[in-house]
Amino acid sequence: MVLNRTTPAQRAEVIVKFINVAQKLRNLQNFNTLMAVVGGLTHSALARLSKTNACLSSDTQKLLIELTELLSTNNNFSNYRRQYQQCTGFRVPILGVHLKDLISLHTALADKVDGVSTSLIHFRKMVQLYQIFKELTCLQNENLPLDTNMDLVNTLRLSLDMHYTEDNIYELSLAREPRSSLSAPVTPTKPVVFADWVAGVSPPDAETINKHVHNMVEAVFKNYDHDKDGFICNAEFEAIAGNFPFIDSFCVLDADKDGMISKSEMKTYFIRANCHSLRSSFKHDFHEKTYFQPTFCTHCTGLLWGLIKQGWKCKDCTINVHKHCKDMVVMECRPKLNSPRRHDSVFNDSEYGCYNNKHRMFHDSKSHRSTQTDNELLLTPNTKPLSEAPVNGEEFYEEQSLLYDRLLKAEEAREKMIAENAFLKSCLDMSLEQNVTLKCQIGLIRQHTISFILNQMDILNLYKESEV
C-alpha cells in the first residue's frame, strides 16, 4: 500500500496511518498483529526510502522506534515478554515467540530423566509445557471485547492478499526511489587524482588543471624556497632548472621583471606550459614493497602497517607511501645521484657554447609572451601551451632536435657531476678535519699515559738494584 503511492509525501501519509494503527493495536494488546505491522514498516524496501522518511515528523519517527524496540529480538524478546506479563484482560500474544519456546523446550529437555534405574518422566519439562499450553488455551476461551464485522474482515483479507514476491517489492521500491536519489549517484564521478593528471589519463578540463598545477607550485616552493619568503630568486631558480631540464629561463617565468618569481607567475607559466615534459618531473614509478623496519609514509607521515607488502616505494626517488596515498603525492620525483659515465658528459667548448647561444635565443624569442597578469590564471579553452605556440626559429630547432636532446643530457650530467663533486669535496674536508683532531687526541693520550706510569712508579718506590 505504501509503494503504490507515487510521491514521497503520499507514501509518508500511508506510513503515518499504519503507525497509528500499530499504536492502536498496542493499546488493544494485540501483539501478534502489531508484530506484522511493525515488521512491514521496518522492511528493507521501505527503510531505504530516504525521501519518504524525510517527510515523517520527529514524533512519528520516535514512535516507530519505540514500537521497534518493544518487539526487538534482543535477549529472547525480553521487552515484549516484560510488557506481556503486565497485560490483563484480553490479549493476543506473538504466536511465533511462544511456538519457539515450545520447540526449544522440547529440543533441550528429554521426555524422561536419564541416569536412574527406572525411567521417570521429566517432571520439570512437563510443568513448563503445561504453563505454555494453559496460556494459549485460556486465550482461546476468552470472549472478544468487540463485535466482529465479517464484511470488514473479508475486505481486509482480499486487500492484503499478497501478489508480490520479495524481489518484486524491492524492485518496486527501486522504481519509486532509485539509488541515484541517495547521497551518491549510481555512477559517481571519481575525482581526478594528481597521479592520473600527471600520467595524462585525466580529462584536460580547466578546474582539474588549475587544482593540480596549484599543488605542483606549492611543492616547488616548499622544496626550493629556502628563505621561505614566497618568492624564487635567481640562485634558487638554478636549483630548479637543474632538476627540470625542460623549464624555460628565469626571465620567461619572471613576467613582471622584478627579479623574483612569485607563485602566481609560476602558476601562470605552468598552466600555459601544460606539457608532458613538465608533468613528468612529478610522475613516480611506484611498486609494492615489504619493509623489515619501521617506515613512515611521505605523504601522510603515518606508519606503514602490516607484515608483508606494507606500502609502495618509488623506484626513482625511493619515497615510501601508503597504497591510498600514492595517487595523491605531489612531490618532485628526483632520482638518486649516480656516477655518470665520463663520455656522456664530455663535449668540446664550441658545441657547448653553440648550445648556450641557441638556448638563449630560443628563450628570448618567447619572453615577450610571458608578461601576463594574475587575471589570466584561469585556463580558457583557447589558451595554447607554450610548446604549441609559434616561435621564431622553431623550424631550426626541430632540425637540430637530436643535437638539442644530446646537449640537454650533457648539461644535466654536468650539473649532477658538479653537485656530486661538491658533496665529495665537503666529505673530504670533514675527513681531514677529523684526522687532525684524532692525531691531537692520540698525542694527548700518549703524554698522559707516560706521566701516569711514572707517577705510579714513584708512589711504589721502585728502585733498580745495582752492584757495588
TrEMBL record:
Signal peptide: none annotated. GO terms for cellular component: plasma membrane. InterPro entries: C1-like_sf, DAG/PE-bd, EF-hand-dom_pair, EF_Hand_1_Ca_BS, EF_hand_dom, PKC_DAG/PE, Ras-like_GEF, Ras_GEF_dom_sf. GO terms for biological process: Ras protein signal transduction. Keywords: Calcium, Guanine-nucleotide releasing factor, Metal-binding, Zinc. Residues 283-333 form the Phorbol-ester/DAG-type domain. GO terms for molecular function: calcium ion binding; guanyl-nucleotide exchange factor activity. It holds the Pfam family C1_1. Residues 1-179 form the Ras-GEF domain. SMART domains: C1, EFh, RasGEF. Residues 212-247, 250-276 form the EF-hand domain. The keyword Metal-binding applies. It comes from the Eukaryota. This is Ras guanyl-releasing protein 3. It comes from Octopus bimaculoides (California two-spotted octopus).
